[in-house]
């Protein structure tokens, strides 16, 4: 491609709302342009990178027996109503009506639609398992689109779905997809970790996220210093390994705490450490009220509460409800004497000796609280967020945190959709069974942004070779000089014949502009035709390392072949 006619409009100034490097560089280098909040056009350079990611995904999916199809972006509301997600998915689902007032949704995800297709076409165990996938635009009405391609309202995704007649083949497919995603993201040049995760609105139980490590990631990963344990902070288990104080239990006593309601204020008022104070929070769990207890230096993990009760909705009760149910205001509530509300506590609470909790009276707390003596009808489980320095749940090392960008996720859906939508099959005994499903997603456009976050320097993008829009960037510094012009044209033809994908900068621009654009675009290999053109000598520069070589044109293709093979 000749750069003189190439549509790659670069920017001198970075837009003020571009907060992170990937957003800044993809805009500045002309890979993308914003059309509305969270909605982008992919310019020719950006489209080529997208196609590279898509090609890697297709190759790896096809290798394991995936079959590509394409489903519509617009979906009938009736399908979502069959599973109940029309009501519960929330405002992120973009809904619309046609001219006949029929309800539709723009596809945020395709579980309902793929299930409807398979239930109408597969009726026997003999045609299972099957793995189907698509690469398509998805739509979610994000409340606050930000970070460019990392959180948009329109984005490109690969979503795959598998259908099984038994859990054994689902387990095998899940492992296969886990390994396949590892290959995909390795080929994309990402530094990533697979982590245990929450399935969210999609449903299902077993799931892993693939997280690209990045300081701008919106998710926190908890991982072990000495093993391969890694989990999203929402799902990281906390080991029940606490030391109990040997101090003697004291008599329970009510004390005046006045306006002290926060953990910090109560601890200061009573001259105790925060880990002696019991934090009590009232939640609505599928419209049933539950009092959740954690230690004062810990935070309730509502995802764990949701999973413990196998609930759909978990919400913190408002102040009025707290007062009605517990007869005390927020900041003064506790489990002692409570009979009309279910109580659960984090493991750490049962090890507290002579602690503090609310007394369900304004301005009053209990001190010398000993859970094993003073609490009744209470169940203990893991309900808190893990913290840095905690023992790793697998018993190896301690926990440290890192930020990550979710680029993929694999789910075991089970029969969540097949049962509600009637997607069944006849087994070997002629008995109807619900299909068992898996779901596997990759954020294609998000992967592009994650790669830029990890692969850039102060001058621009540094693409891994498998994603680079072009393999070679050929620059003629002064095309007005006949020897440079002729050599540039000759090399352009020679490199294309050698099967290199070449961007040829034949523009009548200053050398400084050409070098700056080349750095910005991040193409791995640069060939510069300059002052030694009359000698048949050019310069080769590696974008990643900055290393340069002077080489005669007769040896150029051999050098490029060698350097390309060594690139990552």
TrEMBL record:
The record's note on its domains: Consists of three domains: the N-terminal catalytic domain, the editing domain and the C-terminal anticodon-binding domain.
Keyword match Ligase: yes
Protein encoded by which gene: proS
Compartment list: Cytoplasm
PANTHER family in the cross-refs: MITOCHONDRIAL RIBOSOME PROTEIN L39/PROLYL-TRNA LIGASE FAMILY MEMBER, PROLINE--TRNA LIGASE
Protein name per its UniProtKB record: Proline--tRNA ligase
Lineage: superkingdom: Bacteria
Pfam family, one: tRNA-synt_2b
Span of domain Aminoacyl-transfer RNA synthetases class-II family profile: 38-464
Keyword check for Aminoacyl-tRNA synthetase: yes
Catalytic activity: tRNA(Pro) + L-proline + ATP = L-prolyl-tRNA(Pro) + AMP + diphosphate
BP terms from Gene Ontology: prolyl-tRNA aminoacylation
